[in-house]
Each structure stands twice: as C-alpha cells, then as structure tokens.
Amino acid sequence: MTWQSLQDDLSETGYVASDDLAMALFLAVTLGKPLLLEGPAGVGKTQIAKTLAELQETKLIRLQCYEGLDASHAIYEWNYQRQLLSIRASAEDHKPSEEVEEHIFSEKFLLARPLLEAIRQEKPAVLLIDEVDRADEEFEAYLLEILSDFQITIPEIGTITATSRPYVVLTSNGARDLSDALRRRCLYNHVDYPDRHTEMAIIAKRCPALEDRLAEQIVGFVQALRREDLEKRPGIAETLDWAAALAGLGVNDLADDPEQTQATLVCLLKTERDRAAVPKEVQQRLVGRAA
Amino acid sequence: MQVTRFREGAKGPADRLAGFMAHLRYNGIPAGLSETETALEALAAVDAGQPGEVRSALRAICVGDADQERRFDDLFDAYWLSRGRKRVGSSATSAAHNMQARSGSTSRLVSGVSDETGEADMPDDGDEGATGRSGIGRLVASKVTNIEKTDLRKLMTQEDLKRAERVAQQIARSISDGRSRRRKAAMRGAVFDMRKIMRRSVSRGGEPIELFRRKKPDRPVNVVALLDVSGSMTVYARVFLAFLKGLVSADQTTDAYLFHTQLVRISDALRDTDTLRAVNRLSIMAQGFGGGTKIGANLKLFNAQYAAQSVNRRSVVIIMSDGYDTDPPELLAAELARLRRRGARIVWLNPLKGWAGYGPVARGMAAALPYLDHFAAANTLGDLAALEPWLNRI
Asked: How far apart are CA A163 and CA A155, in angstroms?
C-alpha cells in the first residue's frame, strides 16, 4: 500500500482527503502510531475514522470524551452486581474466601469499556477517541499508557496486553491545549476547511445527484461565507446538509428564489448573530459572487 | 534567509535526519530520538526521492500543533533545500510544496553516502558571532534579527525586571484561586457524598460498595494579557514583558500576546525555561517591534482566532497599551464590545495615565473607556502591584 493508493481507496469510499491528511493516515496505519487530528468543527475529522474502519473492514470503537470522563467509563469497570451475586452464591457453598476473591476478580466479571475493548479485538479495530480536548488532563494520563504500549494495567488482574493493535485516531477542536506528552506520541495533522476544488470533489462524491452548476454555486457561496466575519464558520458537514436541503427542495439556481435560499441558510448559520450578519442583501451579494 | 551546513562527518540518511531533528529542536519544535526513529521507518514506507512526500511525512511525525505545522515548511526548506545558500526567489519552495514535483533535492537524503559539500556552505559574511553559536549544522540568523535579539536580551537581565516579574507572579498566584461555596460530585474530594452513597447502596443490598465524594469546585480565573509593543510603547515594553513573563510562568492557563501591526501569541515562548532561548524566540516573534499600532485590527484577530478558546466568563483580559491607534476608534469599540460579550472582565493598563494631567483624549482610548471594567495607570511597579486587590475582588 502506498499513500496514493490509500487516498484513492478513501476517495472510493466517499472521503476526499488532502495529500497531507492521506500521508498522515498512511503513516499512522503503516507505523502503527496514533493519529491526532485537529481543526475546526465539521471538517470531517470524525468521518475519517469511520471511513478507515470501512476500508479495513473492521469494527469502529468510539470513545466520546467529555468533562469528567473517568477510567470506569473509558477503560474498564468491575461488574459489581454480578460480583455480589457470586459472593452470595458462594457463601451458601461455604467456599474458602481466597477462592471466592480470585473468582470474583477474574476477567469474567470485567466490563470492557471502549479502550479495553479495542485492544482485545481479534482483528485490529479502529479506535476513535473523539474530542479528546474535552476530557480532563487526568484522563490524558490514562491514554498515554495505552497509546504508547497498547496495554492496560488492572490492579486486581495484572497487565492486559493487546491481542491486536488498534488503529487509533484522536480528534480535537482545540478547546484546550493538549499535553506535550500526548502530542509527541501521535502523528499530527491539522485539518482545515477545504479549498474550492476539494470541496467540489467532496460534494460530487456525497451528493452525486446534484447538478454541476448548482454544486459550483453552493461551494462558491460557502467559500465566500467562510471569509465573512462569523462566529461559527460553516464546515463541510454544513455544506453537505445545505446541498441536501437544496436538492430536496428542488432548487436549480440559488438566485432563482432569494426568499427560499435565505430560509435554507439555517443549515449553514448556527447562531443568532451569524444569521443577523447575513441578511438577504449579503446573501444575494455572495450568490452573485459565487455564480 | 537561513543557512545550513551539514556536519562534516554526516553520513547517510540517519545522521542527516538526526541533524534535521536537532535543527527543529533548536527552532522550538520538540523533536527527539523517538521522532527520528519514526521518521526513518516512515522514509522506508514512502518514496524518499520525492521531496513533497518526504516533507509531508516528516511533517506528520514532527509537528505537534497547528502553529508548529505552519512553521515546519520553512524549517524544512532551510535544512533540506537551501544547500547552504540564501534563497533568492521562492520558486524552489513552491515546486517542492507540490507533492508530485520531481526534483533531485532530497536525493541527498537517499544517496547520502559522501557528497561532502559541507565546505560550500558559508553563512553570509560572518555575522554569526552574536549568539556565539556559529556551530556547524545550525541555522545562523541574519543580521537584522541579531540586532533585535541584543536589544531584547538587555531587557531581561536587570534587577527591576526581576521585580516586575515577581510582582506579576504574586498577582497571578493570588487570583488563580477563586473558590465556590457549592459542593459538586467529584472523583477525589474532601467529603463523602452520603446521599449518593446511600442511594446507590440500595441496589446492592445496603452495602456501600462505591464511595462517592464531593468537593468545592475550582473556579479558576484565567488571565489573558495583550501587550502593545508599538513605537510609542517601547520605553515600557521591557518592564511589561517581564511582567508578562511573571504572569505566564505562575499559571499554566495564562495566555499572553504581543501586538504591534500584527498579533503574536507568546505564551509558549515565555514559558520556555531556558531564558536565552526564550529571548531568541521572542525576538523572532517581535519582528516589527516598535512599529505602528493597530489595536482595533489586532483585537479583531484575537476575537476571531483565540478568544473562543482562551476567553470565557471567568477570564480577565489585561490590555497594556497607551491607546494610540491607527485604526478607526469605532473598530476598537466594536471589538471590545464583542470581547465583553464573552463575559470577560477587561482591564486596560495605560502607562500614560500615571502622568499628571492625563485625560483619555486619544481617540482610541476614549472609544474604549465605556467597555472597560478597570482603567489603571501603569508607569511604575507600584501601579502594577495595585492591581492585586482589584483582581482579588472579582
């Protein structure tokens, strides 16, 4: 496999990746290193993990990070209920306590959470650690052990090493700076808004039914809109939503019905201030520029 | 601009890659042994004869954030493509940016055995003395930067500056601990959450197996400082820089920026433990130091690029400027209003305010006044220290 062939494969599955992104992903797969993707929301960071899983025909295991995420939700947890039941049951059999203890702290009673699950797969899975910047710094420390050695230490059992090395993709929106230790263990790529050409290719892949002219208008409009002074700039996800909405409404030309076009902007503009910043006049100007 | 020499004995790709990593490290990108190792593996996996591919692969491996990614291309060009001479045009670079571009430039990397052209690589007319590191295999900065370097280095060695730094540290320490009266569930906390423990124990036959805790949540106040280093502020810039260094080194979450006609983030450079290197990094960033001011435009950039991450309702934004702005005052007012909408407190430190008979007549300053929570003088260290009680009250 070369990075070009990976890029082509991605493109066939419906993901148009830039050269740099394809190279980073290729290295991540060949060298078995985690890949850290940063960039604004809605540029397809999460999607690339899904696409990779599809390409490798393997399972996608996703860990959505949030503030307060702890080991018991991310790595493993003991199944207390079953343990209690087991203790009650063994109490009736008068088993020696050491035996009971060994029994209830065996892997049978372990509930695997995403990270443990990922390293115990027979076939290498794709592990997506989404929005890692939202998790606490303590959680990063747990991640370090897993990302460098692919093993998890459980005090009661010992160290579980990976049966297969998952392909790890981490995404971050830059809500806070990640630690250097984490960054150094990962390959890095900054995913930015696509240029006109790439965005056209993405629309052609995702909405093949769309007419070329309308697609060009849509891309031109969104590209111009990103240069406006907005709080939340629309990402690719928004462009695709908008394209789907326009296709669903049977629009052939953005300039045909300004009222309707204005109404469909809900797909692109997600805050009240941004909506106010793009009144119909601005919208018409952008459409004019896009055409 | 930049000049490279390979070490005389540098043989083979491994050595040169190691040299490249050292070159990155010297320029503030932390690349070490493990990166070299990964890079060698990666070069085996890609076509090492193609500069575009090598660039892309090394970039993925060596950089750690978007900022480093932006700088990487220049550093790469300087090391691999300059062949020890100053580049005149950028044609060589743009060709190499193209992934498919075929050029023999990195063939040195693969052939590598002994095209020892090390001696051809002379930095331009011996202006290297300033840093004392005319060492082989390093980049030697050109004259202009050197002058800036010496200028800034002087700023950092005086006793007064140390005091400014100490004042700042004291302020930073005293405000970073806002505490709440509420208690929240927490992984580790001072007190048991009896209510939750009992509630959860019901399903386990009344046995309190899981212990839950509560603690008072931290309400950290984070400081974001913007320092004006334009021509009119140069006399104060050194003290303020030391002040910033103090603020930044006391607290990991503090963010610092310089602005003149451009805005530069300097938090990482200030955090550098190696003071000399910090100064070098700063002077590279402060190109344009002492020029004109664009407060409005810079605030706009700050709002658009950085504010979303670093400013929230617990932030205190400290702007250090004399308010002389070449942008229209309306822009400044609008951007301050926008910053306020994030809920941040805005403090403006103006060194001119300490002067007798000062009135905020500069148009920029007058426009900014309605949006400030605190407008204070800042021409002596005492003025800076006087900030502390005010910051503690919020």
From this structure: 19
Same domain, A20 and A125: yes
CB spacing of A188 vs B53 below 8 angstroms: no
Residue type present at position B44 = A
Cβ separation A183–B45 shorter than 8 A: no
pTM, 2 dp: 0.63
Cβ contact A27–B61 (<8 Å): yes
d(CA A126, CA A51): 10
The CA-atom distances, in angstroms, between A87 and each of A82, A108, B34 are 9, 14, 48
- CB-based burial, A95-122: b 16+ in 10 Å, e otherwise: eeeeebeeebbeeebbebbbbbbbbbbe
**CB nearest A80 (choices: B30, B57, B209):** B209
- Chain A positions contacting chain B at CB under 8 Å are 2-3, 19-20, 23-24, 26-28, 30-31, 33, 35, 38, 68, 70, 80-81, 84, 138, 174-177, 180, 183-184, 187-190, 229
Q: E strand or H helix at A272, and its extent?
A: helix A272-277
Residues A120, A179: one domain? Answer: yes
User: In this structure, are B278 and B327 located in the same domain?
Assistant: yes
Closest by Cβ to A84, choosing from B30, B61, B204: B204
Full pLDDT tens readout for chain A, 291 residues: 788 899 999 988 888 888 899 999 999 999 888 999 998 888 889 999 999 999 999 999 999 998 888 888 888 889 888 888 888 888 888 888 888 888 888 888 999 899 999 999 999 999 999 999 888 888 888 888 788 888 888 888 888 888 998 999 999 987 677 888 888 889 999 998 988 888 998 888 888 888 888 899 899 999 988 888 787 889 998 999 999 999 888 888 888 888 888 889 988 998 888 888 888 888 888 888 776
In chain B, which residues have their Cβ closer than 8 Å to the Cβ of A82?
none
B231 plus B206 within the same structural domain: no
A35 chain-B contacts, CB cut-off 8 A: 60
Number of domains in chain A: 2
ipTM of predicted assembly, 2 dp: 0.80
| Domain endpoint, select from B107, B140, B173 | B140
